[in-house]
Every structure is written in C-alpha cells, then in structure tokens.
Specification:
The chain is mainly alpha-helical and 564 residues long. It has 22 helices and ten strands.
C-alpha cells in the first residue's frame, strides 16, 4: 500500500479520466472533456460514478485503519518496538502519509462527483439519481473529514478542489479550527439527508446511514472544548439521530454476531456504512488486510506475514479470557469472532480440511505447502477481516482469492454502534441512568453477545458503556477514536486508560501449549506513558512540504462560501 498506488488509481478512475494535480491535498483526476461530457448521460452512468468511492480511494487507509484504530488504542500489537504501540509517531511515518493521502483523495473524489453531477448530467438523468449520488458522495466526504479531524485535529476544509487548483493557492492552505471542521461535517451530512432515499440499493448509503454517522459526530463533538462534562445540545442531537435510525430504519441486529465478519455478512443490513471490496485486476479495489493480520501460510492464495502480531493481554482480560489457561470462556460470542485463542475451532476457515483449529500445532505441512507458525506472544490472533483460503471463499459464494486480495467488506458504522451511541448520549453527563429506551439499546447489544441466559441490566454508567463499545467494536478500527472523544473533555481519564493497559506478552507460552509446562509462564510486561499531545497525530512530512500553511495557527472557515 503506497501513496503512488492511490495516485495511479485516481488517474484511471472511470468517470474522471485525464491527469491530476500534484498537490497532496488536491489529488484528483483533472476532467478529460471527452470522457466527462460523454458520461453522466443516463441514470445508470450517474449511479456508476460513485461506485469507486466505496473502495479504491480508501485503499491506502487500510493499514492505518488498524494501526490507529486498534494498535494505538491497545487492542492489538504489531511489535513492542512499533511506533503505534509506543506512541513515538513522527512526521516521517510512512503509514501516516498513506492515511493522509487516502483521506484527502476521498474528499477530492467526492468533490469531483458532486460537481460533475450538477454540471455534466444529461437531460435524461432523473433528479432522483442526481440527488442519490450527490448524497452518497456527501456522506463519504463527511466520513473522510470525521477521520481527519479525529486523527490530525485542525485540518483545511476543501469544499471545491477545482477552484483551489485554478487559483494555484494549494500551497497556501490554512488549517481550519476543529470546531469549524465538526460544523462542516454536520452541515454536509444534513444536506445529504435531504438528498438520500430512505432505502437504497443493497450495500449503498441511504438516509439512515447519514443519520447514524451524524449521531456519532454529535456524540464526539459534544466533548470538544469542554472540561469534565459534555455539551447537552450535542448529546441531545446524538440521541435524536441515533433514535431515528433505531426506530425508523427497519434495520435489525444480525442475530449471529460472527456472521458479520464472514463473506456472508458483506451486505448485511446491520452495516450502515461499509467499504465494499472486490477481487479483480484493478489494484486498490480489494481488501488487503488478511495479509497483515494472519500468520504465514494461513491461506493458499493470500500471502501473509502477521506471525508475530497479536491481540493484547489487555483486550483478552476485557473479554474475561487469559492465554495462561487452556480452558476457554465462550460466554461472550464476540471474543471468538474477534480473536483466535488456543482451543478455538472455526468451521468457515479451511473448510476442505473440516475447519481450522488454533491449537498451537505446527504439524500442518501435509495439508498444503508450508507450515503455520504459532508464535504470538499473547497466544492470540485477529479473527476479523479474514476470509481464509480459496475453498473458504467459494463455500460462501465468492470466487478465488489472490495475493493481498479478498472481497471481505469492512464495516465502518454498524447498527450496534448506533445502539451504543444512543445509550451513551442518553446517559450524557449523568453518573448513571435507568432510562428505559437507553437500556433497551444496551441490552439488545449485550443479549446478542451473551445469549439467552443473559439477564438485562437495569442501569448503567459510563464505564459500562465504554467497555461495551470496546468489546463490540474491537479490531474494527474504532477504539482509538472513543479515547480521543473521551480525551476532549476528560483528558486524565483517557490517558489513565492507556497507561493501565498491558501491551506485552507471555514468556514460556510455547512450552505451556506444547508440553503443558507452565513453570516458566510469566508476563513480560510492556506499558506506555502518554501525553495530551499524543491524542493528535503529526502531519506527514509530504503534507508539510507541499502545504507550509499547515504550520500556521488554525483560522475560521467562511461558511458563507459553500452555498449550503
């Protein structure tokens, strides 16, 4: 995953064509008159124009999705020397550059689609098609800015790439204030809601996708600039929009949590916003995460190099598990769907061999070329984002996989997330709540996870809802942003959560699992210290070199310039 890959992609996107500007914040294909003028001539072409925003421009964010969302947050470790594990990131980090390039590319692509739909649509294009596609592009644009502001803090608001390129002012871009970025996100989501249908084609964004994202934005914004408590108006808006999704969308939780993270869950109605990947000849249209997250030789088709990577002891403890025991605790279905541990069996992987066993047994050479290497220092591995082998893909109705290519969709916003947003927003600044509707939301999520024996809780506090969010959304690139949100108004609590985490591994685990020898079993502890500055990531060097204005103080954004 390189910045050049996304640049190449943006040169070759079907609907835009031509060449592009070299400015990082403005990557987009310049309009090729023949291609653009001959496109957007009917509804089908207009709908096609937004298809690629569901995958390709996001490709270079995939590694940062996990490294920021889960490694920084203490759910996952790449290595104890890794910058994301240890909070020693700097502007030269290659993945930060990829994250920034990807997010700005999404923004530019969305701006181009919105502009072209208005300017280039032929007379036979219906208003419904125009509105739907513009609404989808606006939601994706809002999602890109939501990541940008939570990662980098104050960032430039680029509403119209074409005008900036035409005026040759890209090198003078200034950051806009954080509060203005959040206001901008709420404005474009509100506009998207007016344009989107209540029901769209399978997998595509609809009005409730926008409502759900807007609820999360308000919940996050509610703490910005506050101290100890959150803004009551923002909390009320977060609750209002989340409740609209819950009550009006007609969507329900998938009864089987684990199905959401298999190919059969790709277009599940619980997924309100998803990256939608394919396996084909076009690089950047695929999910490449399996290669990073699985051990060597896990698949006969997808190369993997994630041998030493692991889910943390801290996350295991949250699930009530310990790799220092050979007895697994399956009371929470989410644990096995999130992380593999000793003794776990998965029917949907290695289907031609009767399933996959995470059993610390290296004697798999006879099954196919190569051996597995069970070397995780916490006795665990990631279970989400993984398809497996060619036969596993075929068994779920898909074709063959390829090197760094799977068609596993990535959930960015799920209905369960909205349930928990609603519960937290209703809790608000109270120490606890017994609100019936908030309890229904929380208990619905927990009941699915814990099964028929679960007894509904009758009250909850912030620690309860925060823990539930971590367990529900672990390894979905989300946890770090919950900590950023908490840091906005309770920085000491956010820092304490991170500094209390165990990010190390076990000594003696191999002897314990292979010879039942626990004599040398002990934690090789690894903990980190963080500062307030660690909750804002540094701008990449390439951005700073091309846009020196990023070093200046943030300025107000002129909202009168955007027309809505």
């Amino acid at each position: 995953m390189k910045i050049n890959n996304i640049k190449f992609l943006l040169v070759t996107i079907l609907i835009m064509g031509g060449t592009m500007s070299c400015e990082d914040f403005l990557h987009r294909p310049a309009e090729d008159t023949y291609t653009i003028d001959s496109f957007y001539q009917n509804d089908e072409q207009v709908y096609q124009s937004v298809n690629s925003i569901y995958n390709s421009p996001w490709f270079d964010f995939q590694r940062g999705f996990i490294q920021i969302g889960d490694v920084l947050a203490g759910n996952y470790v790449i290595s104890v020397e890794d910058a994301y594990t240890n909070f020693n990131l700097n502007s030269s980090d290659a993945e930060l550059a990829n994250v920034s390039a990807s997010l700005w590319s999404v923004n530019a692509y969305c701006n181009g689609v919105i502009q072209n739909v208005d300017a280039k649509s032929g007379p036979s294009v219906t208003q419904e098609a125009k509105n739907t596609v513009k609404g989808e592009a606006m939601v994706w644009k809002a999602m890109a800015y939501f990541y940008l502001v939570r990662c980098f803090g104050a960032v430039p608001i680029i509403h119209d790439n074409a005008s900036i390129i035409a005026s040759n002012t890209s090198a003078q871009l200034k950051r806009n204030k954080i509060e203005d970025v959040y206001k901008y996100i709420t404005i474009i989501l509100t506009e998207a809601i007016e344009l989107l249908p209540t029901k769209n084609a399978s997998g595509r964004l609809d009005k409730y996708s926008a409502y759900g994202l807007l609820s999360k934005v308000y919940l996050t914004r509610s703490g910005y600039g506050m101290s100890g408590t959150r803004n009551e108006d923002d909390l009320a808006n977060a609750a209002k929009y989340a409740k609209m999704v819950i009550d009006e969308s007609g969507k329900v939780l998938n009864p089987e949590y684990g199905d959401l993270f298999q190919l059969i869950g790709n277009y599940d109605e619980e997924g309100l916003i998803t990256w939608q990947w394919t396996v084909g000849t076009q690089w950047t249209s695929q999910n490449a995460m399996q290669s990073d997250l699985t051990m060597s030789n896990f698949s006969d088709a997808v190369n993997s190099w994630g041998n030493w990577r692991y889910c943390t002891i801290d996350l295991q403890s949250e699930f009530g598990e310990s790799a220092a025991s050979l007895t697994r605790n399956y009371h929470d279905k989410r644990r096995k769907a999130t992380m593999m541990m000793m003794g776990d069996h998965y029917d949907h992987w290695w289907v031609e061999f009767g399933g996959f066993d995470y059993n610390w047994d290296n004697s798999t050479e006879g099954k196919y070329e190569g051996k597995l290497a069970f070397v995780s220092s916490t006795g665990s591995g990631c279970a989400k984002h993984i398809v497996g082998r060619n036969a596993d893909s075929q068994a779920q109705g898909y074709g063959n996989l390829n090197t760094m290519h799977t068609p596993m969709n990535t959930h960015l916003l799920r209905l369960a997330d909205v349930y928990l947003i609603y519960a937290e927003a209703v809790l608000g600044n109270s120490s606890s709540t017994t609100d019936a509707s908030a309890l229904r939301a929380l208990n619905s999520v927990r009941r699915r996870a814990l099964g028929s024996s679960y007894e509904d809780v009758t009250s909850f506090n912030f620690a309860d809802i925060d823990r539930e969010r971590r367990l529900e959304l672990a390894m979905e690139g989300d946890r770090w942003y919950d900590l950023v949100r908490l840091h906005y108004y309770k920085p000491e609590e956010a820092k304490a959560i991170i500094e209390d985490q165990e990010r190390g591994g076990w000594n003696g685990l191999d002897a314990f699992y292979t010879n039942n020898d626990a004599s040398g079993l002990e934690i090789n502890t690894h903990k980190v210290s963080v500062t307030d500055a660690d909750f804002t990531l540094p701008f990449p060097e390439v951005d700073l070199s091309l846009n020196p204005g990023l070093m200046d103080d943030p300025v107000d954004f002129d909202f009168g310039s955007i027309g809505y």
